[in-house]
Amino acid sequence: MSVSETVPAGQVVNTDRYPLSEPDGPGWRAVVDSTRAGLSDVGCCVLPEFIRPSLLTALREECARIAPLAHSEVERVNAYNIALDSPLPNGHPARRVMERGNAFVARDHIPVASVIQQLYASPVFQRFVADCFGLDELHELADPLSGLTLNVIAPGRAHPWHFDTNEFTVSMLTQPADDGGVFEYCPNIRSADAENFADVEAVLAGRGDHLVRELELRPGDLQLFRGRFSLHRVSTVRGSVARHTAIFAYSERPGVIGSVERTRQLFGRVTPAHTQGQTVRGDHLLD
């Protein structure tokens, strides 16, 4: 029996630490202020034990059941997830080709009643996330495959350096690897107005260790992250257990849909929404 069949979504959050039931109350404001400080400093903040500890096993099992639905074709990619034959000058970081071995369960494969789907679509959760990012509002991605996904990294695989399509990413580890699978990121390595290709190339070439941070994550922790502007990866998973992470992607603007190239890479398919010119972008970055 899934979490959502036994516990209402509003009772999934550890309200002793995160009083989502009291919007704008003193507890809410204290959490939001602390989170904003972390995001301002390094573009990332982790809220430990966001999910009630008593529900962690059920949450892991719920996500593990849908993990086999992930599109799991190993791809050769670059950090911008653009076509590898794109015309680019010598020395451009997008010329560096990496192997992407992680797999994604698309949103249309995630049950509507699942706890991660309930959290993603919850108005109070969205309001909380928007407040943490200092926004008046935020929007679910209009992309029918992305927005809410389960990231599955099998033993021996990795999620290489990349940027996110959406400005704001919220994620939750639901099953850790036996070993490896470390989240690494470069805080604010680019902005909406500046690609900063030199620093990105330095990291990809192994010369930018001083720009890289590591983050320890535990199941049930909520991670808020500016993934559009921070280069990041998950290192190779080792052992016998796959790493599972629920990814809740939002945007400041409505209508955001992934590009055809990137969507095909991640999910092995596209929909009419991706091919009929409906894509909305909030910046002019490479991707």
Structural class: alpha+beta
Count of domains:
1
Strand content: 15-25%
Largest pleated sheet:
7 strands, antiparallel
- Overall mean confidence score, pLDDT: 89
- Low-confidence blocks of residues: none
Q: Which second-level CATH architecture applies?
A: Sandwich
Secondary-structure element order, as H and E? Answer: HHEHEEEHHEEEEEEHEEEEEHH
Helix tally equals 8
Distance between the termini: 40 Å
* Annotated CATH homologous superfamily: q2cbj1_9rhob like domain
CATH topology: Jelly Rolls
Give the helix level as a range of percent.
Answer: 10-25%
Identify the CATH class: Mainly Beta
Number of strands: 15
CA radius of gyration: 18 Å
Give the overall shape, derived from the CA principal axes: globular
Write the layout of secondary structure elements.
Blueprint: H1 3-6, H2 26-42, E1 44-47, H3 56-66, E2 75-77, E3 98-100, E4 103-105, H4 115-121, H5 123-132, E5 139-140, E6 148-153, E7 159-162, E8 168-175, E9 179-180, E10 183-186, H6 197-204, E11 213-215, E12 222-225, E13 231-234, E14 237-238, E15 243-251, H7 260-267, H8 272-275
Antiparallel strand pairs: 1-12, 2-3, 4-6, 5-15, 6-15, 7-13, 8-12, 8-15, 9-14, 10-11, 10-13
